[in-house]
Amino acid sequence: MTESGSLVEERELELENAIQPQPLPPTTGSRSRLFAAFWIYGLINNVLYVIILSAALDLVGADVPKATVLLADVMPSFFVKLTAPFYVHRIPYKVRIFILVALSLFGMQFVALTTSISARLFGVVLASVSSGLGELTFLQLTHFYSPLSMAAFSSGTGGAGLAGSFLYLVATTWLRLSVRGTIFASSLLPLLFFFAFFSVMPPPDLHLASQSSTFASSARTPGYSLIQYEESSMTTSASAPINDDQESLHSRIDISKSQSLEQIMESMSRTVSRLGPLFFPYMLPLMLVYIGEYIINQGISPTLLFPIEEMPFTYYRDAYVTYGTLYQLGVFISRSSSPFVRIRRLYVPAALQLVNVVILAVQSMYAFIPNVYIIMIIIFYEGLLGGAAYINTFLLVSETIAIEDREFAMGAVGVSDSGGIVVAGTICLYLETFLCAYQKANGRPYCGMT
């Protein structure tokens, strides 16, 4: 190659680099707003789910398996996550926020203001749909921001567990407020989504979004469209003016034109094929962790009881609510631990969680653990494992999946936790009944008491 030709190529490379959007150094203010927005997303999206599970015994009574509430709380969410990759890219983020608020607000009011179990479960279903769509939406939003957004969202979800279970414990166990009033007050919490989305969250990272657009334009699979962020839906009066290039990059959503049935089937086939490489490294270990912890939470923990005089509670139902709070405390700590502790072998927490299932199931049947305080420590440890598996799974996805596939992968891997909970809930419909009957047959009738 001649010297002149080399100089021409170097000049072309300089020009190409010059026109690429360059990442702007984040300011302290923008980082704070980013963390606050995604922490609120995680907190509010999960807090209603936690409150519903904490209230399961109060909503259906001691004689109905608590897994009934669990399945109503997770199956609609699981269905949304399972099907969303085929249609969610058609819904702008701004529209999704309004959908989330409406579903969760009216759902929780149904739970609070009705008396029949079927009506309450219908309200739980509405809130579950909101939770599933919300988790998928906010995980995908992290694709347009720095890794701080993922850490904040994960910490917020952990905080939701702790806040929801603890507030329900304080309101109904310590202060003896009514279940109806507590749940009705919680129905107003989703209004904070508006505040976080329209007032707190900063504009997306132009550099990350432009990288995604560049990769997607050359490597996008047919039928899958990159979600373009609506800048007008998120800027605030405090935001810096947006230039024309930024606005053209983020002010539209790429909606595919009408497709034939053959094209739709091809698109679905390609979507399924993209799930394959994600299953064993990420989806299966996360699913196993969730199967283990929800078998414990909804099938075994309602039976982990001692005579009331041997426990620090006034009523037997207080033990169930306390176990839930300790579990959520563990989840919160571990989901917030990623800056300090990383787990890259995802099958390790999965295996340890299944060991917990065996220990507590044997305890339920044979009562070999001498007091309730040891049970509390195991429940707390169970939460640590569950939270660690969650945050480390999604961090590994963000670090190892190519940027053009990362948005899809975040949403797809999010199916795993709901899938695991559905499996666990189905098992618990029979497991809790079996364990409770076994205890009663052996002179331990506590699980039928409140």
Q: How far from one another are the termini?
A: 85 Å
User: Averaged pLDDT, please?
Assistant: 82
Structural class: mainly alpha
Beta-strand proportion: under 5%
Structure explained in plain terms:
With 450 residues, the protein is mainly alpha-helical. 72% of the residues lie in helices and 0% in strands. The protein contains 17 helices and no strands. The chain has helices at 3-19, 28-54, 56-60, 67-83, 93-113, 117-141, 147-174, 179-186, 192-200, 206-219, 244-250, 261-300, 317-335, 347-366, 372-400, 403-413, 415-441. It is globular and about 60 Å long. 47% of the residues are buried. Mean pLDDT is 82; it is low at 11-24 and 212-258.
Give a brief rundown of this model.
The chain is an all-alpha fold and 450 residues long.
Helix and strand layout, with pairings?
Blueprint: H1 3-19, H2 28-54, H3 56-60, H4 67-83, H5 93-113, H6 117-141, H7 147-174, H8 179-186, H9 192-200, H10 206-219, H11 244-250, H12 261-300, H13 317-335, H14 347-366, H15 372-400, H16 403-413, H17 415-441
Which properties best describe this structure?
72% helix; 17 helices; 450 residues; mainly alpha
